[in-house]
Amino acid sequence: MVAKTLYGLEGVLADEIRAIGGKSIREGNRAVEFTGGKEILYKANFHLRTATRILVSIASFRCRDEFDLYREVKNIKWPQYLKADGSLAISAVLNRSNLDNTHYAALKTKDAIVDRFRDEFGKRPDVDLDNPDLRISVHVHQNKATIALDSSGEPLFRRGYRIEGGVAPLSEVLAAGIIYLTGWDKKIPLVDPMCGSGTIPVEAAMLAKNIAPGLVGRKYGFMKWKDFDRDLLEKIKIDAKSEIIRSCPAEIIGSDMSAKCIDEARGNAKRAGVSDAVKFAVKRMEKIGSDREEGCLIMNPPYGERLAVGEKRKFYGMIGDSLKNNFTGFTAWVLTGNLDAPVQIGLRPKRKIKLYNSPIECRLLKYELYSGSRKQKYQLPEGDQSV
């Protein structure tokens, strides 16, 4: 199997796979290979927080041209995976290959599969890009092709709780990966002072309460496979429910200057089953702080692409002032696509981690906020709407 992920999260994902019982784990570029049976496949989809999808390899071969691709794909025993009157969808990725057109590679793969069924049964499966019975992945690298079945269907970052995502929502997978990278122990307070629609606090609360992503409620591609084991999936669900921690062991706080965003965040937290675990409030960052002696602050501020140079410097300067004045004793982590942010924040980062937020190259900056700064108590009375 291959678990796909985002750049920089390969090591985190490998640890997650190890925890669910995956074997022969090998990290790659935005992917982690591993082995396991059907139970591990189901658990990978149900439990992994930093995987975007899980692929199951069924064939690999030398592929110098479209004739190799067609012949080898047609030789695969497709009737064991798909009914003759079923439906399929195919995606292709080509890297340093003699084949240079992904659409054409997908088309030749489709032709080989339907021709196999037509020759054997006198009928063929249809193409359904939206809701197929079988999603097939074609990957050709240095003229070696790998054919895999996509067990996830919809990408795994679509947990099911985020109906509203705000203006520029952070991927659930990236949010979970960042939380893992910080080393947060799920005991000390966690604060996101620019939480938007609440993805970081919600993912933190799900992690702290040990709520598996699959428990939010979604369907998987493998549920349409011919060998789908409903009883096995139900057992995995029951086991996951029994492992939920009912009382969140950590204080988790999300705030934002936008009342609309906070309303969305509260709705997302409710759908994720963590509304009892996260405190939300409408506040500007410069008006908040903490009286806790230690804590973890994680934030994904706007990158400021539309701001003038002076406005951007002022905005990031405010972040730096707020961190050093209001969060003494905390460790702060700032994800930003503004590569000048370290200078503009005005604090020396202890660590920089390269990540990508969609196509945007980012840095996750770590700041250790030492004592000696002004403290401002972070109070969140019920109904607080101060800005």
Describe the structure concisely:
This protein is of the alpha/beta class. It is built from 10 helices and 15 strands. Helix 8 links the parallel strand 10 and strand 11.
Q: How are the SSEs placed, and which strands pair?
A:
Layout: E1 2-4, H1 10-19, E2 23-27, E3 31-35, H2 38-47, E4 53-62, H3 66-75, E5 87-95, H4 102-121, E6 126-127, E7 134-141, E8 144-150, H5 172-182, E9 190-192, H6 199-208, H7 230-242, E10 252-256, H8 259-272, E11 278-282, E12 295-299, H9 309-326, E13 330-336, H10 341-345, E14 351-357, E15 360-368
Parallel strand pairs: 5-6, 5-7, 9-10, 9-12, 10-11, 12-13
Antiparallel strand pairs: 1-3, 1-4, 2-3, 4-8, 7-8, 13-15, 14-15
Helix pairs in contact: 2-7, 3-4, 5-6, 6-8
Task: Characterise this structure.
With 387 residues, the protein is α/β, with parallel strands linked by helices. It has two domains: 2-150, VC0802-like (2-Layer Sandwich); 172-211 and 246-368, Vaccinia Virus protein VP39 (Rossmann fold). It has ten helices and 15 strands. An eight-stranded mixed β-sheet has the order 2-3-1-4-8-7-5-6. The termini are far apart.
* Morphology: elongated
Order of helices and strands: EHEEHEHEHEEEHEHHEHEEHEHEE
**Which regions are unreliable across 5 or more consecutive residues at pLDDT < 50?**
373-387
pLDDT averaged over residues: 92
CATH class value of the largest domain: Alpha Beta
Strand content: 15-25%
Which structural class do the helices and strands define?
alpha/beta
Cα separation of the termini: 49 Å
CATH architecture of the largest domain: 3-Layer(aba) Sandwich
Named CATH topology of the largest domain: Rossmann fold
